[in-house]
Description:
This protein has helices spanning 4-9, 37-50, 94-100, and strands at residues 12-18, 29-34, 57-66, 69-78. By secondary structure, the protein is an alpha+beta fold.
Amino acid sequence: MQNNSSQQARRSLGALRKAAKTKPRSPDAQGAMKVQRHTIETIMRQFEDNDADEVTANIAGWFNKDSSGRYITVELSPRFVSKQSVERDEPINMFESFFQDKESFH
């Protein structure tokens, strides 16, 4: 059994690759994910703490390429809710700029 600190260092990662569409509703991408015990345990605690049928988890993605082609590395993580919200005057990156641009998308 691994100690708790080494478990926390491991992330729940997977990969999505372009999928062959065999039907109109077939997924555009498919893959597999290795989910770590600490990720599931934290999500289960959120279910129990809130007596909920649904919780929100985070998903993140990074574009990559290897000898088999292009893919997206994906990470599943429990939702972290900060006790304080940080306000910024300027967007810090392209994604923030996109989501804050209310004029272009109505």
